[in-house]
Backbone:
């Protein structure tokens, strides 16, 4: 097990190194950041000065080595646009994204599992069919369109919820969160629902399929034959057995919700890292792009590692053995 | 049911209105990236800085210069300017404003580390800046330099006491963000909000709002929805497609002004072979037809500017015949919008030896100017109609400008806003011969060159007499436009929307300023 973890961590370092090279070359291939950052009124002298100031006059490999040297001391470079450490920019905005992701996952689970169970238990009923059909919409409607529709309906037409931004925050354990204020909750509702839609559909599908698989099995029949109430059969025997695949998938999806909330954050003007990265890409703010992707890749590596380890803990049939 | 809903909505609106009668919420299309007024010379940052900081000389809504922290300015000799400063002005922290702060601010322009676009382009003409006494500043330039007042209208004056030795981060946190402007800095959470408070001791007309909250809302559909839902009271950059609808909304007022931005086609008029020009079969041509002024004229005649403005831009443009719209300094009375004349264009092409036309690719950005990619797509068939088979390629601005500056295009759609509010800015950057040592033609991506234009511009930039200088600028403009160094298309019209009952001073440099919005 220890050897397995060490090996995985070594592999992770290689992945991170490869990724940073790709981003460096990629941004270089897109274009010269100076051309987009500089004021058009600037003359050639100023263009050259700015190129030097951002270190873009040096050959790419030299810029990369400079970055690597900094990275070992925890310095991932300064944003061209903000003139602040790239890592700090990301960490400053991470709480907003984390709480949005958390709220979205909560919506997906709290709505998704009961709906999926219902659809699985009564697949032929009208409600069951409607839920299944609805989940198809959740998969196939584009996020940006649904987002705008949510705003038009709940903010513009009905006026129940604010259209954009993050609400009032309070500090809990050193983190600022808006999930504990009424204003904050009203702001997070629409973007969380928007972000949750896809995951919700996914959970419904998984729960429904799991339920349909489990219900005809002998132990459920036996439980019924014993005279257990339907409630107990469903909530204990069925639910427990469909949760394993749902938990696994949700674990992985959490990563993607955090890393790729770009569209939802842009539509709802949510001050998280998704907005930061899209702005950084538009302005070729390479230090921020690199730092963001390094962070994202690290996050996925950790999640995958934890999932692998948890697997062996949860299911005794799976053993982590040294790969040969 | 419906009535009661309306009543509820009205009550809600009234309560909200009472609670926030003094508070203004603004939805910004392009958020600032720094609170340091000298870090990044870009409009989103400059428009925010204008709330907190004043300049010696201010630009009004038509970019005409008017006194601000300097009450008057004059030439002492050909190359020495003297500025008399306003007395009794205090910074937000209570320290009095003096000539030392002016010297400090001008000199700080070149000392901001890591600046991706420095303000030195406005200060480098000032060779020597001296505080003669607390209310007098003298600036020496290298030879006569008439544009010094225009340049200085872009340099915001900071407090020497508060900002000396401070970094951009100190400005972002607010510790150094001390100006004399109509608003005081309260708080900035990047990407979320910027909060300002009225400066009740402001020397000029005080702002209407006790508190202003700027919220970045980059998605234009959301920005409009935020206004309609009452999340914000005022938005900029209204998407053209929504203007008609907003105009008919009884709760919304629309504010429009022609801008200083011209949208034009730049043409490779210099090289013997141009990379994106082909024959009708798509094979590279060994000759560049765009070098011939008649071909360029034909392209200009082939474009239906009125049609583009009406149908592609939903009216938010004005057909252009030169570098700046009417009313700006240096605009020539002799230049007019080219008439749409495809038959005449065909004749010109035949005269130039291309009776069957040729092929080319027209390039443009797709996220930089109002409806830019749609304009490009509308122009292509107009050119194809006169025999120039035109393909279209659009790309995000971050790729487009890099490739354009590397001269990879033959015909491209670009825009230019004149920051100085007069004609020397586009002349110098777009039409003057590319010359590194003089700093001319940095955006001359077609490498147009005419020594006569250069000479007229050179003289204009050394002529202090306004009337004479304007003549010279007009002359230079006429040369460049008549030879079609660029093909003007239209001037952008900027659009703001506010709640009904507010009045905005719509302005030519597309700035969104809370102190220019008042209750009607």
Residues:
């Amino acid at each position: 097990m220890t050897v397995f973890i060490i090996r995985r961590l070594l592999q992770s370092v290689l992945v991170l190194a490869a990724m940073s090279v790709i981003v460096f070359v990629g941004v270089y291939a897109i274009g010269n950041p100076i051309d987009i950052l500089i004021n058009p009124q600037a003359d050639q002298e100023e263009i050259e000065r700015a190129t030097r100031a951002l270190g873009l006059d040096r050959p790419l490999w030299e810029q990369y080595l400079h970055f690597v040297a900094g990275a070992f001391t925890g310095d991932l470079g300064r944003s061209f646009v903000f003139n602040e450490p790239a890592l700090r920019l990301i960490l400053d905005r991470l709480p907003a994204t984390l709480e949005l992701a958390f709220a979205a996952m909560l919506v997906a689970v709290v709505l998704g599992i009961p709906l999926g169970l219902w659809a699985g238990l009564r697949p032929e009923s009208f409600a069951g069919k409607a839920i299944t059909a609805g989940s198809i919409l959740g998969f196939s409607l584009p996020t940006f369109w649904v987002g705008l529709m949510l705003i038009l309906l709940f903010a513009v037409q009905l006026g129940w919820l604010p259209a954009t931004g993050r609400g009032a925050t309070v500090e809990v354990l050193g983190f600022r969160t808006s999930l504990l204020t009424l204003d904050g909750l009203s702001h997070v509702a629409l973007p969380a629902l928007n972000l949750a839609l896809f995951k919700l559909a996914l959970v419904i599908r998984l729960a429904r399929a799991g339920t349909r698989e489990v219900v005809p099995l002998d132990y459920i029949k036996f439980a019924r034959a014993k005279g257990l109430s339907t409630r107990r059969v469903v909530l204990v025997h069925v639910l427990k057995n469909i949760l394993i695949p749902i938990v696994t998938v949700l674990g992985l999806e959490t990563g993607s919700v955090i890393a790729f909330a770009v569209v939802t954050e842009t539509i709802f003007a949510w001050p998280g890292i998704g907005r930061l990265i899209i702005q950084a890409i538009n302005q070729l703010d390479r230090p921020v792009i690199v730092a963001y992707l390094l962070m994202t890749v690290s996050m996925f590596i950790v999640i995958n590692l934890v999932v692998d380890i948890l697997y062996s803990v949860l299911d005794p049939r799976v053993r982590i053995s040294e790969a040969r | 049911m419906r009535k009661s809903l309306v009543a509820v909505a009205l009550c809600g609106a009234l309560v909200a209105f009472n609670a926030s009668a003094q508070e203004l919420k603004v939805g910004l299309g392009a958020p600032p990236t720094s609170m340091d007024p000298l870090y990044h010379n870009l409009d989103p940052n400059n428009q925010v800085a204008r709330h907190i900081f004043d300049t010696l000389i201010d630009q009004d809504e038509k970019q005409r210069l008017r006194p601000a922290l300097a009450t008057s300015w004059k030439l002492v000799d050909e190359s020495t300017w003297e500025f008399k400063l306003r007395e009794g002005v205090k910074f937000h922290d209570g320290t009095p404003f003096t000539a030392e702060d002016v010297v400090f601010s001008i000199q700080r322009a070149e000392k901001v580390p890591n600046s991706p676009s420095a303000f030195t382009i406005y200060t480098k003409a000032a060779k020597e800046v001296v505080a003669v006494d607390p209310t007098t500043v003298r600036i020496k330039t290298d030879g006569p330099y008439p544009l010094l007042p225009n340049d200085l209208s872009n340099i915001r004056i900071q407090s020497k006491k508060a900002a000396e030795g401070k970094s951009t981060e100190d400005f972002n946190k607010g510790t150094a963000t001390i100006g004399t402007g109509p608003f005081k800095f309260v708080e900035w959470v990047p990407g979320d909000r910027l909060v300002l408070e009225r400066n009740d001791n402001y020397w000029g007309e005080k702002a209407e709002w006790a508190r202003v909250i700027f919220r970045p809302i980059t998605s234009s559909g959301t920005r409009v929805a935020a206004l309609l839902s009452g999340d914000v009271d005022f938005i900029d950059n209204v998407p053209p497609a929504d203007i008609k609808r907003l105009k008919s909304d009884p709760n919304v007022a629309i504010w429009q002004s022609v801008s200083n931005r011209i949208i034009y086609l730049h043409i490779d008029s210099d090289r013997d072979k141009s990379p994106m020009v082909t024959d009708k079969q798509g094979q590279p041509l060994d000759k560049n037809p765009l070098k011939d002024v008649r071909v360029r004229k034909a392209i200009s005649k082939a474009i239906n500017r009125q049609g583009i403005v009406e149908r592609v831009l939903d009216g938010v443009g004005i057909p252009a015949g030169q570098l700046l719209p009417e009313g700006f300094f240096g605009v020539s009375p002799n230049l007019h919008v080219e008439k749409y004349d495809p038959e005449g264009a065909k004749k010109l092409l035949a005269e130039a030896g291309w009776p069957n036309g040729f092929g080319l690719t027209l390039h443009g950005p797709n996220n930089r100017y109002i409806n830019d990619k749609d304009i490009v797509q509308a122009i292509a068939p107009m050119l194809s109609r006169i025999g120039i088979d035109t393909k279209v390629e659009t790309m995000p601005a971050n790729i487009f400008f890099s490739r354009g500056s590397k001269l990879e295009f033959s015909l491209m759609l670009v825009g230019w806003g004149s920051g100085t509010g007069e004609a020397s800015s586009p002349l110098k950057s777009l039409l003057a011969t590319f010359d590194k040592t003089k700093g001319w033609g940095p955006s001359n991506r077609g490498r147009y060159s005419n020594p006569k234009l250069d000479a007229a511009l050179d003289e204009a930039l050394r002529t202090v007499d306004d009337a004479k200088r304007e003549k010279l600028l007009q002359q230079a403009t006429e040369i460049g436009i008549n030879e079609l160094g660029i093909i003007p298309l239209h001037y952008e019209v900027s659009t703001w929307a506010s709640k009904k009952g507010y009045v905005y001073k719509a302005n030519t440099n597309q700035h969104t300023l809370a102190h220019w919005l008042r209750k009607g």
Chain B is about 30% helix and 25% strand. The longest strand of chain B covers residues 252-267. Chain B touches chain A through 60 residues (CB under 8 Å). The radius of gyration of chain B is 25 Å.
